[in-house]
């Protein structure tokens, strides 16, 4: 991943963390950690009141930031500053310690998962009527990563309805139940939370791992599947109360284990599909035939894993409209990997590669979207390392156009009712810019710079596609509402580093212009 993202700040963050060998850590520093930090972050650094302090979990925190947090504390959290108790050298040593690989890697087994579960409100104990006035299908959840909150936003009036605290460092899209009443969040530290939108309450939480990638919710609303980096596992939960149904170790026939890159629901197949980062396989868990039963052992037996062995690794991916094909990125330059990045199209029916996509740089297919162009379906994807958006014909699988952009982009979004696709320049010098592409001409028709010097990224449309909402990723940030036709700004709401925003209708209807 590092080589893929050279151009990005993410990479510099990763490199700056510079994992220290456990052998370099003195026993005094270990004792210092146990005395000063373990009460909140746990003796094994797996997190408690405070987040996990393992190298995997700290990849996105630069070392100078870590020193600053230990010295001065973290605003709006229980983390206090230690400058009055520790010397600069001790703080530096502690920083080395938390970035070092533990001598014994902590585990997170079934009993840990079960023991972590918190139930605030049992299913059925809260009213079934929505406790506020709004179209339940045109609500947005906006994640504000700056201070670990989320805002429920009315998608008609653009008025915030409720702002609430989330777990530390949410990542990936929150996922809704099909009726839009509940939303599930995943944090990088492995917490899955269930929020009842109608009652504005967190009903249950469970920690599924030590470092989690993302979650998916089944089309029937019965299951939540979480994919982990640490430990190498998939965790299946009952969506009602977040109780554990089963934990699956992710490994190939030889016992080689793997991180999960991503899990998604495939509504057309009534299954979950997971991409494995370290093994050339994708896994499918079909829940369609599973019986509705209170017997979790029965349910677990009903969801066997189908392993599809590939001829190369597949990482970041999306489905075609019928959910028969997976279009994924092959990551370059890692052990055992064949070649530099390319795209592969794999049939979920036969398990065979159908086509190879000729893509430059590091396409971010997980952020790809599709639309009809001149009577055929095209797939468009931003690129994490080159300054272009690739547009691919989904019949011939040829790249029909590379649209030059002002820098590498992360998120691309549209709506079937909108003539435009929006793409950011997340990693470039021009990170303040967002391009608006005409889906008919495949030309950039407008470039906006709504907040000079600040990253502008991640668009989600209202249910009807009339408005597009964009984030300004800054502690002094904003959510900006645009008229999706005139491209004029309509409203600006102050927010604390808003990242993604998720519209109930678009997400539960698997709208073609958004992520799933
Ligand atoms: Fe994400 C979604 C992977 C870094 C913000 N990101 C996803 C998904 C994957 C992914 C697989 C889809 C999950 C889902 O929605 O169910 N992200 C990765 C990486 O591999 C990468 C590059 C490195 C890493 O550290 O994990 C990465 N991602 C980031 C960030 O640095 C971002 C910008 C800030 C952050 O919050 O950490 C970031 N990722 C997001 C967001 C989504 C996301 C906002 C949801 C997009 C959506 O609209 O669905």
Automatic annotation (TrEMBL):
List UniProt keywords, sorted A-Z: Heme, Iron, Metal-binding, Signal
List residues of the Cytochrome c domain: 24-102
Q: Which domain of life is it from?
A: Bacteria
Q: Where is the signal peptide?
A: 1-22
Recorded GO MF terms: electron transfer activity; heme binding; metal ion binding
PROSITE patterns under this entry? CYTC
Protein name per UniProt: Cytochrome C oxidase Cbb3
Q: What is the lineage of its organism?
A: Bacteria, Pseudomonadati, Pseudomonadota, Gammaproteobacteria, Oceanospirillales
């Amino acid at each position: 991943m590092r080589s893929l993202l050279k151009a990005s700040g993410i990479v510099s963050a990763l490199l700056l963390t510079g994992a220290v060998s456990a052998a370099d850590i003195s026993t005094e520093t270990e004792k210092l950690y146990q005395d000063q930090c373990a009460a909140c972050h746990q003796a094994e650094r797996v997190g408690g009141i405070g987040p996990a302090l393992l190298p995997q979990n700290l990849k996105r925190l630069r070392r100078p930031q870590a020193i600053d947090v230990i010295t001065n504390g973290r605003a709006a959290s229980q983390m206090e500053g230690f400058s009055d108790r520790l010397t600069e050298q001790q703080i530096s040593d502690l920083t080395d310690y938390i970035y070092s690989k533990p001598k014994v890697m902590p585990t997170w087994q079934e009993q840990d998962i079960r023991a972590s579960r918190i139930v605030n409100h049992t299913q059925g104990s809260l009213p079934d009527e929505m406790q506020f006035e709004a179209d339940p299908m045109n609500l947005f959840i906006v994640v504000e990563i700056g201070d670990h909150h989320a805002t429920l936003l009315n998608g008609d009036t653009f008025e915030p309805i409720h702002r609430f605290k989330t777990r530390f460092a949410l990542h990936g899209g929150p996922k809704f139940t099909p009726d839009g009443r509940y939303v599930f969040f995943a944090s990088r530290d492995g917490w899955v939370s269930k929020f009842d939108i109608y009652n504005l309450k967190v009903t249950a939480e469970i920690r599924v791992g030590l470092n989690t990638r993302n979650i998916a919710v089944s089309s029937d609303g019965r299951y939540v599947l979480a994919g982990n980096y640490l430990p190498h596992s998939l965790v299946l939960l009952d969506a009602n109360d977040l109780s554990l149904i089963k934990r699956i170790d992710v490994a190939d026939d030889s016992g080689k284990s793997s991180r999960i890159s991503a899990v998604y629901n495939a509504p057309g197949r009534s299954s979950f599909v997971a991409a494995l980062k370290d093994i050339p396989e994708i896994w499918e868990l079909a829940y369609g035939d599973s019986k509705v039963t209170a017997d979790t052992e029965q349910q677990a037996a009903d969801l066997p894993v189908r392993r599809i062995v590939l001829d190369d690794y597949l990482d970041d991916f999306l489905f075609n409209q019928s959910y028969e094909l997976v279009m994924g990125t092959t990551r370059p330059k890692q052990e055992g990997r064949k070649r530099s990045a390319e795209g592969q199209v794999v049939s979920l029916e036969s398990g065979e590669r159908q086509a190879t996509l000729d893509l430059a740089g590091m396409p971010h297919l997980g952020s790809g979207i599709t639309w009809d162009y001149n009577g055929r379906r095209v797939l468009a994807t931003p690129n994490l390392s080159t300054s272009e958006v690739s547009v691919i014909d989904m019949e011939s699988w040829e790249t029909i156009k590379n649209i030059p952009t002002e820098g590498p982009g992360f998120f691309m979004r549209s709506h079937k009712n909108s003539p435009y696709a929006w793409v950011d320049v997340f990693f470039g010098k021009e990170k303040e810019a967002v391009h608006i592409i005409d889906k008919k001409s495949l030309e950039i028709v407008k470039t906006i710079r709504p907040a000079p010097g600040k990253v502008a990224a991640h668009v989600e449309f209202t249910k009807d596609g009339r408005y597009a909402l964009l984030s300004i990723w800054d502690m002094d940030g904003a959510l900006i509402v645009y008229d999706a036709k005139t491209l004029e700004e309509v409203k600006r709401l102050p927010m604390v580093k808003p990242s993604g925003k998720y519209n109930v209708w678009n997400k539960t209807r698997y709208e073609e212009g958004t992520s799933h």
